[in-house]
Amino acid sequence: MRKTTFSILFIIVVLLCFTSCYSVRIVSSQGTVNPDPMSERADFYRDKMIIELDTVVKASAFTDEVSFIASGTRCKSGKLHSVEYKNSFGASLLYLVTFGSRRKVKIKYVCLKTEN
Amino acid sequence: MAHTTTYAKTSWDTLHNNGPFPLKYLQITELESNSTLPNAIARYNDATLEIQQLIQQALAHNQGFRAYGSRWSMSSIAHQKDRLHYNGYMNLDIPIPVDAVRSDSPYQVENLFFFQCGNTIKEISQKLSQSGKSLKTSGASNGQTIAGCISTGVHGSALDVGAIQDYVVGIQLITGPKAKDVLYLERHTKPALTSAFVHQLNATVIRNDELFNAALVSLGSFGFIHGVVIEAEDRFLLHRYVRKVDKQLALSLADTMDFSSQVLIPEAVDRNGKPLRPYHYKVFINQYVNDPQYVIEVMYKKPYVTPYPDPFTIINKSLYRDLIHLLIKISEKYPKTIPWFIKKLEKQILPDVNEETLGTLYETFWDAPYQGPAFACSFGVDHKDSSKVLELLTKTTLQEGPIPGIFAMRFVKGGKATLGFTKFPITCVIEIDGVLWQKTNKLISLKEYSNKMITVLQQHNIDFTLHWGKNADWSYPGLINYMYSAKAEEWKKFRTALLRPELARVFSNHFLESTKLSDSVSVVPQDLIVSL
């Protein structure tokens, strides 16, 4: 009985650790956000043309920096309004156990509106 | 060519979730790229043709067509059940050369700017700043498009300046699919652009004060506002102070607008120690506490000089939206908890007392992040009635509520727009805003609450108006007549003269019908809208 309780608690703690996360967002004081008239979101990104990156980057143990380029049809201006980076316990653990060869990246960014 | 994408939709909502409202089609127009069509006027005219095609389509299908920008209005003024047109990507600015301004114009050419409808206040402010210029005033934030602002009468609290429409000097309208339906309006007593320049925009000029004043706050119903000419001024700084002052003093200033006999801010005085007149004055009122003091926000205009301290707070934190949602759900079931919640959230709702900032208009009235479903009921009254009306409205709120919001008062100089809701010499805008709630058996609906407030003001013979873009019981019997009487008839007369009947239907919507402003006038003088 005690063993079962311990197992359940352990699983809960592990699950909480994996889901525990926080995010930090940097926002430019200048420039106008690229709007999204089709947006139905109900958060900071409401009416903003958001681009989300949620991937695992494969790298060697000797890879230092990883860059993403802001471009494409959803980012015609190529200029940034805001970037949000989300960190989680799972992502940090993945980085540690793979010695940096698997890097979980979760980024949301919004570009500036194109000037006409 | 500019191109439009049409999406079949079933519903549409405002930014603050005051809907949803039914919809058939959402149309989004994007301009031709400037690499293909580098000339701004050519791109603008290309967009004119595209909009005319869309109007023709609506006409052919016997459907309504209405433009919207940032969907910040909380009333249904921006909604059309058939075709809604998003114009936020139509953000050209057209340089006005020296020879494009008439020699008899009272405006200085360097202060005139031509903006396409989808430019937001933020975009315009940044573009003006590149020329060392600034808007004269804005709303409390910067996300509205210029066409949306003037259509609904967006205002700040510039007590000697006015609302946004009051610095518009020209409006380009598209009233139909024909070539003759492209118009440029300005006042004949204050002309700005030469006819030769306007002809480059393929528009017919009508210089007519009364028509212009009617079209200034058009509720989106005089046609498609494609572009506006505004008068800017030299860039300036605003020194902003937040203070807590005696309630009687705050109300006395509101009623009199006399800032000369009381030193509010020790450093805001002239060489003789006489208090300066503020650019902006705002009073915050938590109607659920009996505090002998009110929080006020006061701003003084200063010349633009650099350097000045960074006006932005570097770290911004916000409440969990889920927490607000939970609080409102509890409030709906147990309304008596609302005053306690508001008291606890006062730090998030009100500015910090003794806060001071120095910045441009753009920096002072910066971004307002989305914070979930919201409401706002906004009355315009003569500033001399400020304290009386505040007492009536707060009393009603305590009797009928509590309601999850708090009051504030702002002050705006009157303008000339026929249906401008800032119609008094200085209008006190008394507003309650807060979190949108659902009616329960213990809490009245927002429409019922608005109805009670309108009724109490009418019972006390208070002359008032309502902000077109805010929540209200817009179908309240005789409401428009009570607020505008002959002015409403005048507005309808000009609309009838300007739009052919089939186009008047295209540019109408449920809001206009429920307020009876869509009604045409049977007798209209033939020369009503001639150029003078």
TrEMBL record, chain A:
This is Uncharacterized protein.
From TrEMBL, chain B:
It comes from the Bacteria. GO terms for molecular function: flavin adenine dinucleotide binding; oxidoreductase activity, acting on the CH-OH group of donors, oxygen as acceptor. Gene3D superfamilies: 3.30.465.10. InterPro entries: FAD-bd_PCMH-like_sf, FAD-bd_PCMH_sub2, FAD_lactone_oxidase-like. This is FAD binding domain-containing protein. It comes from Aquimarina brevivitae.
